[in-house]
Write a structure and sequence with these properties.
This protein is an alpha/beta fold and 374 residues long. The chain has helices spanning 9-15, 26-39, 52-59, 63-75, 112-128, 150-157, 201-213, 237-247, 268-279, 294-306, 339-351, and strands at 79-82, 86-89, 98-103, 132-137, 163-166, 184-186, 219-222, 257-258, 288-291, 315-321, 333-337, 364-367. Helices cover 34% and strands 14% of the residues.
Length: 374
């Protein structure tokens, strides 16, 4: 019979050890508490957790925060959640042995270097662990990807893959991915449980503090991410940026944010060039501008050089991947991350979910060596 951790005296004592504190979101702290309890054997496979209402009362959290914490751990395959029977500690997941690396389209010239390097690094790390890797690409148009890829289904049915890494995440595939019935992790702009953390707020906090320390009172953002929110109400990158701007007491006008109004058909670098030409030709620039991600930044840097050089009174903070450096022949500050660390995080999320680090841990602020030369 399954153990039941209802709020009896012993259960109350265990769960009351947790109290959210500090600026970190309460649901993340609650998830970390339960994750550690499962890892250390304090909560056992098959054990039933108290209800959302009971946990919310015990932890003095909004029930929606508790639900988000449980869903986060469900996505890590540590919990099993059912509206009818409750929430249970999941049984140990069978370790993947044959991993599929799934693309929803052919790589184009602009994103080839990043994804090609990420794929090679994933293959190397899987080989080092004695695991097999199979690369699968869905050649169908996105409009036809609302049903599972036949090539992918055959690979699962034939036993060629028993787990999956998804490196591109169009809206069309979101509904059927979790129904494949195999361990799954994905990278993309969505808050589904199986999608890795896309919390940019800690990064923006660091970037804006850097801007303020150098005298900036206003800031802009050039990015390819649309404005708005995920289905669960979580903010997209641009909304996270605006919230950070408000909290840091900086100024940002709507016309200092460039985001696409529709799907980008011409490629991110060309998009960065076009919006960069318009943005940097204006006379009322903010004190600092953030360029993200690197492929958009490349186009914007080309536009800056086309106009004769960077604005003299505007700080530029530019994203890049450490292994895919590009020359910026004028003063700026890079905020870079590592494709190798992205590969490690992705595999950890698949093989050891509790050990995966969040995306924002990987960024470092690095001064352009040309800064000293002006």
């Amino acid at each position: 019979m399954n153990q039941n951790h209802q709020m009896n005296q012993s259960g109350q004592s265990f769960y009351s050890r947790f109290r959210p504190e500090g600026p970190q979101a309460g649901y993340r702290q609650a998830a970390a508490f339960l994750r550690e309890a499962i890892r250390r054997g304090r909560l056992h496979p098959g054990e039933r957790l108290p209800s959302v209402r009971q946990l919310a009362e015990c932890w003095q959290l909004n029930p929606s925060m508790v639900t988000r914490a449980l869903k986060l751990l469900e996505g890590e395959q540590l919990l099993q959640c059912s509206a009818k029977v409750g929430t249970f500690v999941a049984p140990p997941v069978r370790s993947p042995r044959r991993v599929g690396i799934y693309y929803t389209r052919q790589l184009n010239e602009q994103d080839f270097h990043f994804y090609a390097l990420l794929t090679v690094l994933l293959q190397q790390r899987l080989e080092q662990r004695g695991l097999a890797a199979t690369i699968l690409c869905d050649d169908r148009p996105e409009s036809e990807q609302h049903t599972p890829c036949p090539r992918l289904l055959r690979a699962i049915d034939e036993g060629r893959i028993d787990s999956l890494i998804v490196l591109m995440l169009p809206q069309a595939i979101l509904d059927w991915l979790p129904r494949l019935g195999i361990p799954l992790v994905a990278r993309g702009e969505n808050r589904k449980p199986y999608v890795l953390d896309w919390n940019f707020r800690p990064l923006f906090d660091r970037l804006l503090e850097h801007c303020r320390s150098r005298g900036a009172g206003s800031v802009g953002l050039l990015s390819h991410v649309s404005r708005g929110f995920f289905a669960d109400g979580s903010p997209l990158l641009t909304e996270q940026f605006l919230a950070a701007v408000r909290d840091h007491g900086l100024k940002c006008r709507d016309d200092w944010i460039t985001t696409p109004s529709d799907r980008i058909e011409t490629g991110f670098e060309h998009y960065g060039y076009q919006v960069g030409k318009r943005f940097f030709s204006r006379s009322d620039l903010p004190d600092a501008v953030i360029l993200y991600p690197d492929v958009v930044a490349r186009g914007a840097v080309a536009a800056i050089l086309k106009r004769g050089g960077p604005p003299t009174r505007t700080q530029l903070l530019i994203h890049r991947h450490r292994e895919l450096e590009f020359l910026v022949p004028f003063p700026c500050t890079f905020f870079d991350n590592s494709v190798a660390e992205i590969a490690d995080q992705t595999l950890n999320a698949l093989l050891s979910p509790a050990a995966a680090r969040p995306d924002h841990d990987f960024y470092q602020l690095v001064a352009n060596p040309l800064n000293e030369k002006g």
